[in-house]
Write a structure and sequence with these properties.
Elements (H helix, E strand, L loop, with lengths): L1 H15 L7 H7 L4 H12 L3 H19 L4 H7 L5 H12 L6 H4 L22 E7 L3 E10 L5 H13 L2 H5 L10 E8 L2 E9 L7 E4 L3 E9 L2 H20 L3 E11 L10 E8 L2
Protein name: HTH araC/xylS-type domain-containing protein
Keywords: DNA-binding, Transcription, Transcription regulation
């Protein structure tokens, strides 16, 4: 339960600094916590990345203040770190779908995020099929994007996947998928102060894409079917809320890997989805 306790303490940290621009990378490194590991676990337990959670909570608190109607909009926005009023109005509309001035009228319909609470529930019956196997390191070729840790969210991962699919890059990558792992691989790592996302395939052939190599090790592989954006996130929640505590296993979360197999579009109910989680040495 140590991991859960740390996440709870970090939620308290966010709540205490809700109005500030938190440098999550710096805070986690000061705590001697590897950012990729923490963001994976936090997102799985809470349902949002630390940045997303802070923004949702910030918008919720602003909505409460606007509904109360005791202070001017410009004063509220400045208190919560928005010094450009037009940018604040845009952010508020993106969060709730309305103008800040319409808050009182539509307050009861707003998708507010209260301070998070969650329950870790060990279960006897596994929700997802899983196998353990030793996997030797292998080469991945693909397209890479790097993101700031402070603003990274899982939504960016699937936006990138969708972009590559729409522009036929996935189709081109699959032509080089001659390694022993078949399908599209999503590999997330923390490198050089950035979150690195590679989307590619296992390949042995020369190809006009970036390349990297995975680490050899023992993995637990969880498998299901459905829309990858929905299924993979539910698998991660299952791993960190249930499986991990039932099995009492330590995981190496410094990187994570997903494998998607599909006969057609990758964002479909027919996709086969695997989450590969490496066991700690």
């Amino acid at each position: 339960m140590q991991t859960v306790n740390f996440v709870e303490r970090f939620i308290i940290y966010i709540e205490d600094h809700i109005r500030e621009n938190i440098d999550y990378d710096e805070v986690l490194l000061d705590m001697s916590v590897e950012p990729k590991s923490f963001i994976t676990i936090f997102s799985s337990l809470v349902g949002f990345s630390p940045y997303e959670y802070q923004m949702r909570r910030k918008m919720t608190e602003i909505a409460y203040e606007l509904e109360a109607g005791h202070r001017r909009l410009i004063d509220i926005s400045k208190q919560y770190g928005f010094h450009d009023i037009e940018q604040f109005k845009k952010t508020y509309r993106e969060a709730f779908g309305i103008s800040p001035y319409e808050t009182e009228k539509y307050f009861q319909t707003l998708d507010l995020t209260e301070r998070i609470s969650f329950e870790v529930v060990p279960v006897e019956r596994p929700k997802y099929r899983s196998t353990e196997q030793h996997v030797e390191g292998f080469r991945i070729i693909g397209a890479v994007r790097r993101f700031s840790v402070d603003h990274y969210s899982t939504l960016m991962k699937y936006d990138f996947l969708s972009y590559l699919e729409d522009n036929h890059v996935l189709e081109e990558l699959l032509k080089y998928n001659d390694g022993h792992i078949k399908g599209i691989i999503l590999l997330e790592r923390y490198i050089g102060g950035k979150m690195e996302l590679m989307i590619g395939v296992s390949s042995l052939s020369p190809a006009p894409f970036e390349e990297t190599y995975t680490e050899s090790g023992d993995y637990v592989i969880f498998e299901s079917e459905g829309d990858p954006e929905i299924v993979s996130e539910d698998i991660y929640r299952y791993i960190f809320r249930r499986w991990r505590f039932k099995e009492d296993r330590e995981l190496n979360c410094s990187y994570s890997m997903e494998l998607i197999k599909s006969r057609g579009l990758f964002f479909s109910e027919d996709s086969k989805v695997q989450v590969w989680q490496r066991l700690s040495d």
